[in-house]
Amino acid sequence: MQNDTFLVTGALGCLGAWVLKHLVDRGVRVIATDLGGEPVRPRLVMTEDAIAKVTWHVLDVTDTKAVAKLVADEGVTRIVHLAGLQIPFCRANPALGSAVNVTGTINIFEAARAAGVQGLAYASSLAALGPATDYDTWPLPDDAIPAPRTLYGAYKVANEQTAGVYAADWGVGSVGLRPCVVYGVGRDQGVTADFAKAILASVAGRPFHIRTCGLIPMQHASDVARMFIGCAEAGVSDARVCNLRNDVIRTEDFIAALKQVIPSADVTYDEGSEFPFPADLSDKGLQDVLGSVPYTPLSEALAQDAAMYRELVERDAIDLGQLDV
Ligand SMILES: NC(=O)c1ccc[n+]([C@@H]2O[C@H](COP(=O)([O-])OP(=O)(O)OC[C@H]3O[C@@H](n4cnc5c(N)ncnc54)[C@H](O)[C@@H]3O)[C@@H](O)[C@H]2O)c1
């Protein structure tokens, strides 16, 4: 939608970088916000010319007034809200985790309400759900009862329920997406980033150990970015919460697919650390919102990632230190 102005929060993150890339590719006006700093991840997936087309603002989503002012001043019509602290950060600092993940999201909803924003997609997470043993209906529907075991997950459930109240009381429509294991260029933090790091390590000629095993629900970062954009554009007037699906694959099969693309890949995995969340999720709700869900088949996505990583490694444009953690 060419007349739209998109606000992207958490724009320096992995998904933020891919959302910016797709919006700029489409010629849409984009306001990118984050805490500040160099666009390290956007530079992995965008050219400097593309990055220069984005309007950048430092915005701490915990700052209620600043969020409202920016949304109003910039004439924002659609929001992709990705800013958040992940599981280890919320565990280490619960009050900050709640300020960013809960209050930050409330600030976005308030600003959207005040400015009459037309579309809002925000990041929930698979971590809103409990372990697979909590459930008995497969594929797991969107309305399975949340049962988070982490503060991060509890905060994401608070976001989903906040969205319900904003739709019921003030007519603010939204779509909350529950990404699972996102892989692709730019994914570099947390245990579930191991799948992306395994690709980078294989390109760089290094062995790599994935710290989990079992059935994994995986989505390519570029596809997830397009899901967020599509959901912000979808004109939803109620509060939807959508599981993501795409590839549901065992860790050893992911490694085998990687070896098809990079035969020299030397990747092992931890056979004792079962992935702690459900993997067999229904994305019917997302199909209802989008019509067709963006999906790059794993073999194609791995080939794309390998080519991008190879080019970045050759230019010395990516930090290989991430492989040591
Ligand atoms: N990547 C995944 O596999 C995955 C899975 C489930 C859910 N999610 C959710 O999707 C969203 C984006 O994920 P990602 O992988 O891009 O995360 P990321 O950690 O790479 O990026 C998050 C961004 O939020 C920013 N941020 C943190 N505190 C902020 C604040 N106070 N104000 C403004 N910005 C702040 C960070 O600087 C960072 O750039 C997050 O909310 C995350 O919880 C991601």
Q: Could you give a short account of the major beta sheet?
A: 7 strands, parallel
Order of helices and strands: EHEHHEHEHHEHEEHEEHEEHEHH
**Estimated structural class:** alpha/beta
**CATH class descriptor name:** Alpha Beta
Terminal CA distance? 41 Å
Named at the architecture level, the CATH assignment is 3-Layer(aba) Sandwich
CATH fold annotation: Rossmann fold
Strand content: 15-25%
Give every kind of bound small molecule, once each.
nicotinamide-adenine-dinucleotide
How many domains? The number is 1
Which residues sit in consecutive blocks of at least 5 with pLDDT less than 50?
none
In one word, what is the shape? globular
Strand order of the largest sheet: 3-2-1-4-5-6-10
Radius of gyration: 19 Å
CATH superfamily: NAD(P)-binding Rossmann-like Domain
E-strand count: 12
Mean pLDDT: 97
Summed up, the helix count is: 12
Can you walk through the features of this model?
There is one protein chain. The protein has 12 helices and 12 strands. Helix content is 43%, strand content 16%. It has helices spanning 14-25, 40-45, 48-52, 64-73, 87-92, 94-115, 151-170, 194-203, 221-233, 251-261, 284-290, 298-314; strands spanning 5-9, 29-34, 55-58, 78-81, 119-123, 174-178, 181-183, 208-210, 215-220, 239-243, 247-250, 267-269. The protein has one domain (5-324): Rossmann fold (3-Layer(aba) Sandwich), CATH 3.40.50. By secondary structure, it is α/β, with parallel strands linked by helices. The chain has a 7-stranded parallel sheet, sandwiched between helices. The structure holds nicotinamide-adenine-dinucleotide. Nicotinamide-adenine-dinucleotide binds next to helix 1, helix 6 and strand 7.
